[in-house]
């Protein structure tokens, strides 16, 4: 039996309402545009099927802030709690009734509320605020769920921290509410002490899957050349996964990169021997596009 399928997403804009309260902050209410997902399944024997999936919701948030003097430096804390409500009725055709082609066709009924609070700590540089930290903590209440599943599965935190202009830190993590353990935690820090030097380190953790640390550094003596070295180490397996580097040359509109990597051999948990691997990488890409018409000479 021959089957074919086409999937399309059509988004139609609904009404948007914003309310602002200046006395104690800002209150915003946003009515979601609804989204319609159409899936057409063609079966030679059974004929075509049209699957409709509609989504609607409301987003509400409140913003307040406080300013204080931290030893001669004025700082501001912005607090923004929010609630995002989403409702997706059950599609006319369930996942089992269609030939699944991609992840869109796995989407089904949803009824949930995302609750969270975003926090910002800022200082003022000239006439513009500069973020020292931007942290978002949220969870999701799933009213439509499988039997036996909890209302709240986990709590997620993600954010960016820039304590000084030369240091940048990005992190995200998920805490399992059921057992109190960490399911996911990723953090990356970058240090730029000079304009020609950049050093970065990253730790990635996923429960029962990945626990690794990586380090990389880039030296750019001028605007044309850049030299990079990197390494990755598996903490749970106690072995070096890869080391390598590259040299890059950037021209006015083209960039070229030549690099190499070495992956040491190891023995898997099932006792399979993996040989050493060597990789050579060459890349070339456009860094700028000329301005001009489709027909005619390029303009300067």
What is the succession of H and E elements? EEEEEEEEEEEEEEEEEEEE
Shape: extended
In round numbers, the mean pLDDT is 83
N→C terminal distance: 58 Å
Structural class: mainly beta
Low-confidence stretches: 1-25, 293-300
Q: In which range does the helix fraction lie?
A: under 10%
Percentage of residues in DSSP E strands: over 45%
Question: In DSSP terms, counting alpha (H) and pi (I) runs of 4 or more, how many helices?
Answer: 0
Radius of gyration: 26 Å
In terms of quaternary structure, what is this? single chain
Find the count of extended strands (DSSP E, 2+ residues). 20
Largest sheet: 16 strands, antiparallel
Summarize the SSE layout with pairings:
Blueprint: E1 3-11, E2 26-31, E3 35-43, E4 47-70, E5 73-88, E6 110-125, E7 128-142, E8 152-161, E9 167-176, E10 182-194, E11 197-206, E12 210-219, E13 225-234, E14 239-250, E15 254-263, E16 266-267, E17 273-274, E18 277-286, E19 291-292, E20 298-299
Give a verbal description of the structure:
The protein has 300 residues and is mainly beta. 0% of the residues lie in helices and 66% in strands. The protein has a 16-stranded antiparallel β-sheet that branches. It has a two-stranded antiparallel sheet with strand order 16-17. Strand 19 and strand 20 form a beta hairpin. It starts with a strand and ends with a strand. Mean pLDDT is 83; it is low at 1-25 and 293-300.
